[in-house]
Structure formats: C-alpha cells, structure tokens
Amino acid sequence: MPHIRPVSDLRNNFADISRIVHETAEPVFLTKNGYGDMVVMSMEAYERKLFESEIYFKLKEAELEAKSTDKRFSHEEVFNELRARLADKVESDEV
C-alpha cells in the first residue's frame, strides 16, 4: 500500500517520513491541495531504480538489435569475448 502524505508533513514530520522511506525502501508520495506533487525516496531506493531502468533500457536495445539481424551468438562465444576484453583491460591498467 503506497504511503501518501500531505506536503506539509515534509516540514512537520520529516523524521517520520525519513524513517518510512528507509525502513520500507518504498517512496512516500506527497500531495499538495489533494493532488500529487512530489515523491520522496531513500538514496538506496533511487539508485536501485536507476540501475533497474538502465538494465531495462539495455535489454530493450538488445531486443531491437536481435530483431534487425539473424546473427546469433552462443553462450561460449559471448563469454570468450568478455574474457578477452577483461584481459585486455587488466593489461592496459597495469601498464
């Protein structure tokens, strides 16, 4: 169930709102004159949302690319390429 509070609670009950967003890892929706105005969330929850949206974007991009070509790669080919790139990166960082 979403936490919905009037925006005045941000000033009057900041500690309570802070506790809610950290303990539940869920946002608190703030209203102004009965209408949605802002969302408050913990930094951890915000960063998790950013990470999830980045993953979603990359999956969508991969899906579009897969539709545009018939070329497919095996699991072994993908991981061999990743290992080679990591090895090159480690070598270049050591120099």
TrEMBL record:
Coiled-coil positions = none
Q: Which domain of life is it from?
A: Bacteria
InterPro entries named among the record's database cross-references = Antitoxin_Phd/YefM (IPR006442), YefM-like_sf (IPR036165)
Signal peptide segment: none
UniProt family annotation: Belongs to the phD/YefM antitoxin family.
Function as written in the Swiss-Prot or TrEMBL entry: Antitoxin component of a type II toxin-antitoxin (TA) system.
Name this protein carries in UniProt = Antitoxin
Q: Which organism is it from?
A: Lutispora thermophila DSM 19022
